[in-house]
Amino acid sequence: MKIRFLGQNGFVFDFNGKTILVDPFISANPLAIDINIIDLNPDYILVTHGHQDHVLDVEQIAKANNSTVISNYEIVSWFGQKKISGHPMNHGGQWKFDFGTVKYVNAVHSSVLPDGTYGGNPGGFVIWDDNICFYIAGDTALTWDMKLIPVTCPTLDFAILPVGDNFTMGVDDAIICSDFIECNNIVGCHYDTFGFIEIDHMEAKEKFGLAGKTLHLLDVGQTMDI
Ligand code: NI
Ligand code: MN
Q: Which pTM value belongs to this model?
């Protein structure tokens, strides 16, 4: 499986023949000027929560590709008013899609949509099929609830965790999170996009290394084989 980093919490990957996009924040991200949203063509768009740096390009991409938005009930309803199809979920619920199973899990953060509409409670996703299982934390603090992730998926292949601090976990808490979720293969996100979340890449990777873990910090546009 290949995943491509699109900046902030944006990723795109092909999973069982479907293209899945996560939290596209591309057109206003100066770090993502080389990403062309016309090329993404997702079947599904996963949205962790309602903040602008996660939903900005959802409408344009979904309308161009007839994509299905998977998110919490409130966010799916908001996009539904814009004539975008969606699959609503809420915390603790899982659903078997045609690409795999998705569970919407807790995140400790906030979630208002760009026009001020209530964005429900923020979340993350655990996604799996018979061969692979991974966790997309979304914007979140370190929380004890992360200990429940291995109950759903005892052997995570990788996890996408925020490491930028200030608005989410920073590196040190992300290392503790990786203990809670029992996963040593971490892809970082939510760093460098704004001044508040700039990180020292070398130091972050060294800290994970000292804990016996690997932190991947992809360049925007970079693809990684899992
Ligand atoms: Ni946020
Ligand atoms: Mn964010």
A: 0.98
DSSP string, 12-55: EEEETTEEEEE----TT-GGGTT--GGG---SEEE-----HHHH
Which ligand lies nearest the alpha carbon of 23? 2
Helix, strand, coil percentages in the chain from 3-state DSSP, rounded to 5: 25, 30, 45
> For residue 51, how far is its CA from the centre of ligand 1 (angstroms)?
5
- 18-43 pLDDT per residue, tens: 999 999 999 999 999 999 999 999 99
Amino acid at 138: G
Work out whether strand 44-46 and strand 18-22 pair parallel, antiparallel, or are unpaired: parallel
CATH of the domain at 77: 3.60.15.10
d(CA 71, ligand 2 centre) in Å: 15
- Strand 133-136 and strand 18-22: pairing? unpaired
> How many domains does the chain contain in total?
1
Q: Which amino acid is at 148?
A: L
pLDDT at 71: 98
Q: Looking at the DSSP assignment, which residues form a beta bridge with residue 156?
A: none
CA of 49 to the centre of ligand 2 (A): 8
Structural domain range at position 81: 2-225
